[in-house]
Amino acid sequence: MIILVTGSTGLIGNQVLQHLDGNGAEVRALTRSPERAQVPEGLGAVKGDLV
């Protein structure tokens, strides 16, 4: 199962990413600009916008 985290570039979203990654979950970070996103190493960034 893959977990998609919205708001992943914010303060709380980034902490959620780190927690999930630390527990071995397969995680993707939803962001408008994956090329600029600062997500933890090894996690995938997915381009998208929840409008």
TrEMBL record:
What Gene3D superfamilies does the record point to?
NAD(P)-binding Rossmann-like Domain
Q: Which Pfam families did the record assign? A: Epimerase (PF01370)
* Secretion signal span: none
UniProt domain NAD-dependent epimerase/dehydratase: residue ranges: 3-38
InterPro entries tied to this protein:
Epimerase_deHydtase, NAD(P)-bd_dom_sf
What is the official name of this protein in its record? Answer: NmrA-like family protein
